[in-house]
Amino acid sequence: MYTLEEKICILLGDIGVSAPKFFQLWNMFDGAEDLVANFGKDKSIEKLLGSNYADVYNGIRKRGYDSIIDKMEKNEIFAVTYVSSDYPNTLREIEEMPYILFCKGNAKLLASECLAVIGTRKVSSYGRRITHDFTAILCDYFTIVSGLAYGVDSIAHETTLEEHGKTIAVLGGGLLNVYPAANVGLAERIISSGGLVVSEYGMNAQPFAYHFPYRNRIVSGLSRGVLVCQAPAKSGTNSTVELALDQGKDIFVVPGEIYDPGFQGSNHLIKSVQSACVTTPRDIVDFYGLEKYVNSKQAYQMSIEEQAIVNALSVGQLTFDELVLQTGISPADLNFLLANLELRSIIAKLAGNTYRLYGGIE
Length: 362
Fold this sequence. Notes:
Blueprint: H1 4-15, H2 19-26, H3 32-38, H4 43-49, H5 53-61, H6 64-74, E1 78-81, H7 89-92, E2 100-105, E3 114-119, H8 125-138, E4 143-146, H9 152-162, E5 167-170, H10 184-192, E6 196-199, H11 211-221, E7 225-230, H12 236-246, E8 250-253, H13 264-272, H14 281-287, H15 296-299, H16 304-313, E9 318-319, H17 320-327, H18 331-343, E10 347-350, E11 354-357
Parallel strand pairs: 3-4, 3-7, 4-5, 5-6, 7-8
Antiparallel strand pairs: 1-2, 2-6, 9-11, 10-11
């Protein structure tokens, strides 16, 4: 059951009243009962709420929150408001904290130790590897928070699910209007695997462009730190970093090729944010003094032939034919061994039938 205060939050959140306007309105009254009894008596409220005024007025008078709650329950959606006991303390500390989170999934994750993994939608093959490799390790230590967008966001969520970790997706639209539509299935997988999908916008809210920069304060606000996997010079990632810095969050950035425009933003952040550069997930684990990182590659007992392949690649990447010559392993056996090593993320296959050690996770 929701309290009257929570019901008012649900109503205004579903209508689309922004966080700043909500708190201005809330501070005009002495609690929810006073708001309900005297809402229409102050003309300044109409000016404050603008186009939302009529919907809010009618919703309060007609108890419109009841029908909204019925719809939420039918869609297994629940609300965590700023007056709720399970509202995350991390969000209470940020500027313009959301007064409501419409949620689907495991709300306990809101109180967990979180790390945001963010980056460009137009991710390169190198950025893809960075996101996968770092997230695969870090999801053992943190709930991974991202925005369900294409590129880095999707890879972070998907990798966490592959590694049986927990992830939170923060949307820029309503829970019943997931954007991009291609990620509806991913959102459902996050929920079914014990993760959480949240939005401060009403259930059917459109994913307007201006919603996304604003929702990023929640992505960073929930998190202890923010990992930037790839960012060009002009990117929404940079605005998230600015918000995170204002919130006092830790910033971690993986460096990229200096001539690649897709990493200009990342490399600029490394130059401008002190101690931001990280080259392995272990840098972040050690920064927080967490349990010592156990390398899964070390736990895997390699055969003599597999060790020979790793030794050959320790000096740099090699083609398949070069590996045949250096290891003396037959092509048929080498194919099988390479597939096993790749499956265990000990080596990576590159273009041109070339292989390398899976660097960057030691």
